[in-house]
């Protein structure tokens, strides 16, 4: 129910990924090309980025559509970063949490986004509340499914899980409790990107030695974009992309994705 994008690599402006491309996230807010659920992402937006020398990302979020923010394009034109995560939102359910419900969510040096919806929310995930420390439940940033899924991921990260394990285990836990949920998760720590394809589209583009972009859909028609198969965990850095099949909650392995193609030199 949204579109999101993350990047790690050489320093670039926010606008290089979010505004300037012909089908950038800015345009995807009203005209996504590959979105399977919903048609307009006008229920908020946000971008998080890492300033040079500061491991804690900054965030800029708003409750309204990105095209209605008259300052954003100018901000994106001049702010430079080596890593970012941004999203435009189509709310699963109407709520009163305003920009607090807009991704990216953040904790310490991490940024997180959820593209999808938890089926049967909130009742379907009520049994999972007991798996979280009470203070985590009481301090949820917003009263929506994405914020709760982030709390589940964050609890695993704080317990010492690697990002890929934290995302994979959370997806399987939520999918078992709420079958039919769409759980495309996106996480960055400023140096790596971890993501899941589970029920909606996910693509990546790697430029060796320069950087890697992971996005709900391509923001241009560059032939180097590669689609991530459904039921897949993606782990990426500025130089490598690794795809790993996820298992369905019943234990049957998902269809194995094809290996990532050899990287070609950028031109």
Automatic annotation (TrEMBL):
Region annotated Disordered, chain positions: 243-267
UniProt keyword annotation of Membrane present: no
One Pfam family linked to the record: GATase_4
Compositionally skewed regions (Pro residues) per UniProt: 256-267
UniProt pathway annotation: Amino-acid biosynthesis; ergothioneine biosynthesis
EC annotation from Swiss-Prot or TrEMBL: 3.5.1.118
Name of the protein in question: Gamma-glutamyl-hercynylcysteine sulfoxide hydrolase
Species the sequence originates in: Streptomyces echinoruber
């Amino acid at each position: 129910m949204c579109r999101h994008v993350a990047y790690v690599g050489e320093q670039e402006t926010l606008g290089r990924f979010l505004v300037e491309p012909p089908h950038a996230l800015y345009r995807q807010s009203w005209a996504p090309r590959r979105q399977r659920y919903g048609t307009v992402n006008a229920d908020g937006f946000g971008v998080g980025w890492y300033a040079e020398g500061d491991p804690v990302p900054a965030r800029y979020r708003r409750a309204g559509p990105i095209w209605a923010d008259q300052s954003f394009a100018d901000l994106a034109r001049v702010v430079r970063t080596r890593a970012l995560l941004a999203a435009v939102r189509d709310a699963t359910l109407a709520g009163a949490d305003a920009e607090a419900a807009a991704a990216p969510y953040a904790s310490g040096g991490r940024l997180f986004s959820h593209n999808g919806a938890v089926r049967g929310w909130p009742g379907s995930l009520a049994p999972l509340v007991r798996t979280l420390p009470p203070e985590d439940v009481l301090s949820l940033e917003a009263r929506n499914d994405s914020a709760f899924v982030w709390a589940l991921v964050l609890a695993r990260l704080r317990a010492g899980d690697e990002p890929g394990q934290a995302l994979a285990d959370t997806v399987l836990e939520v999918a078992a409790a709420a079958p039919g949920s769409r759980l495309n998760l996106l996480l960055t720590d400023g140096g790596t990107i971890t993501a899941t394809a589970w029920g909606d589209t996910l693509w990546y583009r790697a430029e060796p030695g320069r950087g890697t972009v992971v996005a709900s859909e391509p923001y241009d028609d560059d032939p180097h974009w590669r689609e991530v198969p459904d039921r897949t965990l993606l782990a990426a850095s500025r130089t490598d992309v690794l795809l790993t099949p996820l298992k369905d909650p019943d234990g049957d392995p998902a269809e194995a994705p094809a290996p990532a193609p050899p990287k070609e030199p950028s031109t």
